[in-house]
Structures are given as structure tokens and as C-alpha cells.
Amino acid sequence: MTGCGQAAQTGKVITEPASNPQPPAAALELQPPAELPQPPATETPSSPESTAAQAPPETPKQQASKVTRCHTSMLTGSLQNPEAGAGQRYAELTLTNSSGETCTLYGYGGLQLVDASGRALPTDAKRTPNPGPSLIRLAPGESASATLHWTAVPHEGEPTDGPCAPTAARLEVIPPDETDPLSVTWNSGPVCGFGSIDGTAYHR
Question: Per its UniProt entry, which superkingdom is the organism in (predicted)?
Fold first, then answer.
């Protein structure tokens, strides 16, 4: 083994080892090299049963179910936990997965105040960064919320001897990345500041 290794390392090719002299040519003619008999090749006819027995068992591929975003038709909405103090108003705009499938919410949605006849009222929805967007997975029956904040104090140019703005009957809510709204009952009074509402991204 050492000699082979050394030859390979030095790059020399040994053609006639001294310990193995070649036989005379006559001996080569009289003594043809012996050939070992090879066993006859046998072919076993394949059958569906034998092929199935030899083939490795197939492992079923587990395909992860694709979870899509929550569409408007999969959700219901409500205003919860209203808070009032020092002219400031807060509420949780909650969306609940009312479908039978898991879906995801990510980011901010759209808002529009409307009166009882469906007429749009002044609305100025603004995004607040805390908390910011995060991917929320909603199983059937689970909910996520956006925290809303607005003021009940009239701004310059708004009436001060009565409601600062018409009181909305509903809030039209557009879920993130959707275009169709869903209606949420609004029972939180007028929104001063020309309809300005601050809203966070949806969160748990």
C-alpha cells in the first residue's frame, strides 16, 4: 500500500516491476490465458406483483393548506370597549372570522362614516404606527382589532353650540387589501375635527 501511495504522489508510472518478469513469448503462445466461465445470465420475468414488491413504498406528500387573506365576505365587525374622557374617544374596531376557513389579516383598513340613509359623512382616516402591521392568522371564530381614536372637541370652523358634526349611524369598514366594505353600527356620537379618526393596524 505504501509503494502505491508513493508512486501516485510522485507521478511516476511503473511499467515493469522487477519482481514480476514477463514470461517468454513462446509460453504466451502455448498457454492462452485461462478464462473463468461466467454463469449464464438469467432474466426473471417481471410481474406487477414482483415489481410492486421491489419498488420502495411511496410516501404521501403532505401539502400544506394554502391560507389566503381574509376577504370581506368572511368577516363580521363590531365596535367594542368604547372609552371617553377629557374630550377624547377610543374604541376597538373588531373583525371576526365568521367563515369556516382560516385566513390572515395584515396591516390597516379603510373607514367611512355614513348616516342612516347611507350618505357619506366627512371622514379623515389616519394611520398610527403603534402597533404597526403584523401578520395575524385567524381561525374560524377568532378576532383581531384596530384601536380607533377621535375627539369630541370642536375644531376651528366647526359648530360649538351643538354637535360639531352630524352623528353617523354606521361605519363602513374595508378590511386590509380588500375593496368591498362591511357595515358596523356606530353608536359613539359625532366625530369632531372634520371626521378625523386615528387607527392602528389590526392586532390581537
Answer: Bacteria
pLDDT at 198 over 80: yes
Edge-to-edge strands of the sheet including 143-151? Answer: 75-85, 88-97, 143-151, 196-199, 124-127
Residue 2 has pLDDT above 50, yes or no: no
Phi, psi of 36 (to 5 degrees): -75, 130
Average pLDDT, the chain: 81
Task: Inform me whether the pLDDT recorded for 75 exceeds 80.
Answer: yes
Place 105 in a pLDDT band, splitting at 50, 70 and 90. Answer: very high
Contacts of 172 (CB under 8 A, 6+ apart): 111, 112, 113, 114, 181, 182, 183, 184
CATH code that applies to domain 72-199: 2.60.40
**Geometric angle at alpha carbon 74, from 70 and 80, rounded to 5°:** 90
Domain boundaries defined on the chain: 72-199
* Matching residue, cell 366647526: 158
> Tell me, what amino acid is at 9?
Q
Contact 190/164 with Cβ under 8 angstroms?
yes
Name the nearest CA neighbour of 140 among 196, 76, 79, 188: 76
Q: pTM (2 decimals)?
A: 0.68
